[in-house]
């Protein structure tokens, strides 16, 4: 039988351990408050700054738990009756030594992890490098998404046509796919479908073949391998600024990896656990950085946006000119495929948020594509002037209709869908007039 005095001392030590641990959390909390008010460098990954407030809240609740547990150990009459073994002190030490550091790291690393979560919606492809995995689901960009049995987002449209309804095939990248948008109804293809059905009064079939990270060369390969099998009436290819430059981080174009999508994709249990552990994500990134000798995500962004700046500022390097020419060449190939298969084609340029903020100064890429489309007689729709007029009428700032620098929210896609739909209606009208006797 252990003495009451010894048990009492052990309980006090246990309580002090919890209270001291709570004080450590207060120090961390103060640090994150300083970070929140921009008194420390703000070089955080995508989504990191949004997580700071949540970190502070979790630290406060953890502190309260530890503090109250410490008080309980020192004040509780029930715990004072423990007299068999130093159970309370052993449990306290076990919790604090093993679990407290892990909990602290899990909470405090959140801003330094951001929203770059692992996913399971992609798979490797020999030709296109990656594609969407059929019948998969997962979080992408922090929101849940589902991929249908055809390996696309949205409702399944059978390749074999069973009616004469207007069928649209949308090609593009993450903007077409609907990155950061949880609901399929918020994507461009879905909104165009809804708008046209209201105008035409008949059912429309819209296929969303947008895949995150795709450039026109990958959209062309999809069209060759699968897209033409849908027998669409009109193909809409939406391009954005990084379609010109994103490819150059890929090893196929002299880069260093197989792309962000595959780097973030996972089919294994341990890797999937990263989505639920900031610590595991941070450790993987450090291992990845050691393997490459640099941070591949940051390097890809530096390469991409460096060349974009050259293109926008009208001082492109040889590498930037190569990016422009390669992209335009792939667009022309898609247009030629449509002509050969008697399919209408529409090229759409979706602007970045900073272009909408200063449309007259930063619209050089749109002018380049306009000149190219005119020369090649490719139907072309520049959304930049439409966005500028529309948000001015609505009294919005450009940042209010974008989720980040590139990806639009549902409201912006509504503006784009109305503009695209009106152009499609004109194409249908012109086609009917041309084919009429």
CATH class of the largest domain: Alpha Beta
Mean pLDDT: 83
Annotated CATH topology of the largest domain: Rossmann fold
Question: What proportion of the residues is helical, as a percent range?
Answer: 40-55%
The count of domains is: 2
Quick one: overall form? Answer: elongated
Biggest sheet: strands side by side, in what order?
6-5-7-8-9
Q: Major β-sheet, in short?
A: 5 strands, parallel
The proportion of residues in beta strands is 5-15%
The structure class reads alpha/beta
Rg calculated over all Cα atoms: 28 Å
Low-confidence stretches: none
Helix and strand pattern: HHHHHEEEEEHHEHEHHHHHEHHEHH
Count the DSSP helices: 17
Question: N- to C-terminal separation?
Answer: 108 Å
Number of E-type strands: 9
User: Architecture of the largest domain, according to CATH?
Assistant: 3-Layer(aba) Sandwich
CATH level-4 homologous superfamily of the largest domain? SGNH hydrolase
Model description:
Helix 2 runs antiparallel to helix 4 and helix 12 packs across helix 13 (318-340). This protein has helices at 4-36, 52-75, 77-80, 87-108, 110-113, 174-177, 188-200, 216-225, 260-263, 269-273, 278-292, 296-312, 318-340, 353-357, 364-376, 384-394, 410-435; strands at residues 122-125, 129-132, 137-140, 143-146, 166-172, 204-210, 234-239, 344-349, 380-382. The protein is α/β, with parallel strands linked by helices and 437 residues long. A five-stranded parallel beta sheet has the order 6-5-7-8-9, sandwiched between helices. The chain has a two-stranded antiparallel sheet with strand order 1-2. It is built from 17 helices and nine strands. Strand 3 and strand 4 form a beta hairpin. The protein folds into two domains: 4-113, no CATH class; 122-266 and 292-435, SGNH hydrolase (Rossmann fold, 3-Layer(aba) Sandwich), CATH 3.40.50.1110. It is 53% helix and 10% strand. The protein is elongated.
């Amino acid at each position: 039988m252990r003495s009451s005095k010894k048990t009492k001392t052990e309980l006090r030590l246990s309580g002090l351990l919890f209270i001291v641990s709570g004080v450590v959390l207060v120090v961390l909390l103060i640090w994150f408050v300083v970070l929140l008010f921009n008194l420390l460098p703000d070089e955080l990954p995508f989504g990191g700054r949004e997580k700071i407030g949540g970190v502070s809240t979790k630290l406060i609740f953890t502190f309260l738990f530890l503090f109250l547990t410490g008080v309980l150990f020192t004040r509780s009459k029930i715990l004072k009756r423990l007299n068999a073994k130093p159970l309370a002190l052993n449990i306290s030490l076990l919790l604090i030594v093993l679990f407290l550091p892990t909990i602290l790291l899990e909470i405090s690393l959140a801003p330094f992890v951001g929203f770059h979560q692992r996913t399971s919606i992609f798979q490797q492809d020999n030709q296109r490098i990656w594609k969407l995995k059929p019948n998969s689901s997962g979080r992408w960009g922090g929101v849940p998404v589902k991929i249908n049995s055809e390996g696309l987002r949205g409702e399944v449209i059978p390749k074999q046509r069973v009616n004469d309804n207007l069928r649209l095939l949308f090609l593009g990248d993450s903007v077409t796919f609907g990155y950061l948008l949880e609901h399929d109804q918020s994507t461009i293809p879905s909104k165009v479908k809804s708008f046209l059905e209201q105008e035409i009064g008949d059912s429309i079939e819209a296929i969303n073949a947008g895949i995150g990270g795709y450039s026109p060369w990958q959209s062309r390969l999809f069209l060759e391998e699968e897209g033409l099998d849908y027998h669409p009436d009109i193909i809409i290819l939406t391009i954005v600024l990084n379609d010109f430059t994103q490819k150059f981080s890929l090893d196929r174009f002299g880069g260093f990896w197989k792309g962000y999508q595959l780097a973030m994709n996972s089919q294994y249990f341990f890797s999937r656990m990263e989505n639920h552990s900031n610590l595991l994500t941070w450790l993987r990134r450090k291992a990845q950085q050691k393997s490459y000798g640099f941070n591949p995500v940051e390097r890809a962004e530096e390469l991409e946006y460096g060349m974009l700046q050259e293109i926008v500022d009208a001082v492109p390097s040889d590498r930037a000119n190569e990016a422009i020419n390669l992209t335009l060449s792939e667009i022309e190939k898609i247009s030629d495929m449509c002509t050969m298969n008697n399919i209408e084609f529409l090229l759409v340029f979706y602007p970045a948020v900073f272009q909408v903020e200063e449309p007259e100064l930063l619209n050089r890429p749109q002018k380049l594509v306009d000149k190219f489309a005119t020369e090649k007689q490719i139907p072309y729709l520049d959304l930049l002037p439409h966005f500028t007029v529309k948000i001015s009428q609505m009294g919005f700032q450009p940042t209010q209709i974008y989720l980040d620098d590139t990806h639009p929210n549902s409201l912006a896609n509504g503006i784009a869908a109305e503009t695209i739909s009106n152009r499609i209606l004109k194409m249908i009208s012109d086609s009917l007039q041309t084919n009429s006797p």
